[in-house]
Fold each of these.
Amino acid sequence: MKRIAGINAPAPKHLRGDMAVLKPFDVAAHSPDGYIFTRWLAGMPWWTPFAMMVLVVLWPTIVYAQSGFTTGDAFGALWRWMPFLLTSGFLFNVVISMLAMAIGTVAGAALGLGQISPLKSLRMFAWFVTQLFRNSPWLVLLFIVLLALPFEITVFGVTVRIPDWMKGVFGLSLPVMANISEVVRGAVQSVPTAQWEAAESLAFTRRQILWQIILPQCYKRMLPPWMNWYAILTMATPLCSLLGIEEIITLSRQAMEAEDNHPELLVPFFGFALILFFLYCYPIARLTMRLERKFAVKL
Amino acid sequence: MMTASNWTPEQPIVSLKEVRKSFGALEVLKGVSLDVMKGEVICIIGPSGSGKSTLIRCINGLNDIQGGSIKVEGQEVHDVKLDKLELRKKVGMVFQQYNLFPHKTALENVMMAPLKVLKQEKSEVEARARKLIKKVRLEGKENSYPGELSGGQQQRVAIARSLAMNPDVMLFDEVTAALDPETVKEVLVTIRELAEDGMTCILVTHEMGFAREVADHIYFTDRGVIVEHGPPATFFTDASDPRTKEFLGQIL
């Protein structure tokens, strides 16, 4: 690229400060990509959780210094509840995220392959489903699933109850499915068509080409966006608290109620949840961005 | 199996009659006819954009045609009822950009089609693949991935990969055009050995010296038609058409 003084290179000394130059707007640098959340998370310095902990400790001291219920009492309460919040609360969020990811990945892979089917009707159907669930608010999908699914179903005379948390898993897996569908379609289409032609000229069938030649080349480049969506999904699991599912946010609220709802409790309890989510998702985000950089160069 | 045809080896193994091909409104082949006998080596030369690559891509059905006929061993290639897979087992193709499968080693690249397409027995395929890799002088590179090989080496693996299917005809689409000058020769040596073994070869090439040396017949195409053709001995010296003369004047 040509270096232009004052635009993309330092201006000579005698010109500096003389003229205000409006730099061209860099569209590429400002357009959002699929990694916008993960990049933001991974871009934080490693000491962020410690800074958060300090903030969580100091905040109530400053704001509610005059109240009878001290910060010390609030942290004492958090300390008592911590094992319960961690094992019954946060671990449940992790379980929800893993189940939703598993369902979303399997369904999304099928939908993504549908989007590249030679059958036009199947392609259109898969595209429509993908766009529908990709562009709907997650919370709306959750509520629709919660209200649309019966609380029990009867199959061959056996009545199975569907607990709310399972509906939550299903509701969260829908947007994941749609986004994974796009990941699969994008990865398959990123393989040069010359690979298809080379395989065709060796008399491979379409199915063989897809499964034995194209998809094996895709797994590596699908991994970073897949992890990206896992981190986003995990961060979205507290949405389930709005459905009354007993994950960490719901349990934190119940715990605070049990501790007489002192306002001093808010920051320690929700701060604890925030730190847990950060500790879980931050390494994933860092690894995702590292893999993304590595695979982007090698391709 | 390919439907029975009364083709005998005395007839052309590949026969094109008035082939027409357009991409939208752009007609790239405007009635091309040529015959290739079994064991013959023919070279198609001509300026870029004259339809050479399109022409050989039509022979194994990678491109469809809008008019005329292409027959391989007497079988119409663009017959809608034809099983393209059966055709492609008989016609091997090597590309300009090699197009090896990057996630497989050199040996696996060669073995893959006979194993998965022809469903041949693994030990037999592996022995044949090793022999082919030796034939293209890549002994010791069996377990290298395409990314670890030079362009010339990758192209020779691609040739071995095509040969592993035991094709009757080999198509070479500007196979040396993407190579460094010093690696061109190793690929040409491999192709010449194939030709000497009696393989029917159709080459699109810019290597005039090579064409002159190995070809039984040379075709010059320009703007979608065959302008002139003949055996190399007379083609290069007695070209009569002004377009051929001009092209050869620029090249030689």
Amino acid sequence: MTNPNGRFGIHGGQYIPETLMNAVIELEEAYNYYKNDPQFNRELSELLNEYAGRPSRLYFAEKMTKDLGGAKIYLKREDLNHTGAHKINNVLGQALLAKKMGKKRLIAETGAGQHGVATATAAALMGMECVVFMGEEDTIRQALNVYRMRLLGAEVIPVTSGTKTLKDAVSEAMREWTSRIADTHYCLGSVMGPHPFPTIVRDFQAVISKEIKAQILEKEGRLPDAVIACVGGGSNAIGSFYHFIEDKDVKLIGCEAAGRGIDTFETAATVNTGKLGIFHGMKSYFCQDEYGQIAPVYSISAGLDNPGVGPEHAYLHDINRAQYVPITDEEAVCAFEYLAKTEGIIPAIESSHAAAFAKKLAPTMSKDKIIVVTISGRGDKDCAAIARYRGENIYE
Amino acid sequence: MSNISKAFENGKAFIAFITCGDPDLETTAAAVRMAAKNGADLIELGIPFSDPTAEGPVIQGANLRALANSITTDDIFGFVKEIRKDVAIPMVFMTYANVVFSYGAERFIKTCAEIGIDGLILPDIPFEEKDEFEPICIKYGIDLISLIAPTSQNRIAKIAKEAKGFVYIVSSLGVTGTRSEINTDLASIVKVVRENTDVPCAIGFGISNPEQAKKMAGISDGAIVGSAIIKILEKYGKDSPKYVGEFVKSMKDALR
């Protein structure tokens, strides 16, 4: 879907300082070479299967299906991957690519900490240095993940600029990359940023929809009616959608973090409340004020707390191929609790946004319909925060 | 002929960067006047942005202080119109793509021309993306300034060939901010620039004292200083214009 200049319709592009241009060109050339290199693909498959535990299961959520009384619900269990989320798919690909390019050091931004943990993990595995930038606010919300990253040998740098959350961590990682390029790869965690990142990350995450397609055909003999995933930057969502984009009968639904509601300022629902802009290397939709100042977004989920959305999602929205729905904190927390009690699965609060929409959608569909919900990560990291949301004063 | 070329008619150019609205627009106006009076050849006026990814901590701070004062693009347009009555030297805006884009590129650039702005520096618009704004800039006679970095290598010639106003050479890797040493082989970069364009070139990023300015201007056509001036504004607040004037004088004297 990418055209040569890294555009998805009008979105995407390379809006970055000149200092980084040769770095992204070098990355694009390396990627274009290695993506067709059988040896690279063998090594990556080996890592994904033997190390990360792929393929992830497509699990029939029978109790949830019965309880909701409508469409059959399948859960794509990315939470069962090594490190507990889909993030590892992209990171293993990029780390391997960086290594082939001769880079010795990985830098990354992280919101909830899952991408940071995945990057620290890959760096440990491949013997690379690792520095993770994380908003100071998020280092407090996700203290356990900070410890994990340090345990894995990474240096975690709390970012104190701006709103001290994910967008500031991205800005700081970009600043770091401009100061040290030769030995460093910026392992971007979502389908965001300048070309070629949205394409590279999407390709590495597309394994999700490739597997879903094969698994659902085996179990049901047909394609699903809807695929649902949560969207911050949008990497697990684009991974879940990608191989279904050409199958027009499969509805693609991205669930954005509405925070306290899309009629409030405390929201991170970019497609629903944002407007077209240029930021962090790309043209896409962003939450911003009338003068283009990027908004301090809010969500209970640190992983969806992002003022922008990946350019391919912006494009899928423009051409009406995917639908983006807002899910509030309260709806997500209810789904978090519901999935725990109904299926014995504790999803990440990010993924709970997708489960929340499935709860609304399934009862409106007949029993012969099929929904696939991507559970992008596990919820252990969120338990203390959700307990506090419910008024229980527990700390990790 | 670009109005910006006037900045390079008084020997080596001294280019001063000031963030609009830090600590307030009255102080910015006074600082700009003092800089002009004391020999600045061109003023770069920063329009604050919430997430200035090319800036180091000093200019980031100025951006956030200005935004905390609720300074808007419209306020800054009004301010420029006012100071243009008595400040004659060339002035350019330095901001980020989204500030221009969200205002409406044509509306923004047309206003620039009306209020007497001569050029536009957008650090997140590289050569590959300049079509976003350059055709409109040309229509209204605004120079979209090109940047060249230590990593530009094979890109220098093509960037220089299409450069307008002046070429902004980034002295070092990384973000804006004062540096004790600049190690890039800038003379080689300047050589390639000059082989490909008649547009003057100035060096910025990390220059904070007269010795560095002299050295940088010695190998190019001018020196650009931002963070060192912002530090003065941060330190002295409303009292800073006279210190800005003294600083500019010391820098320009070193370039004469």
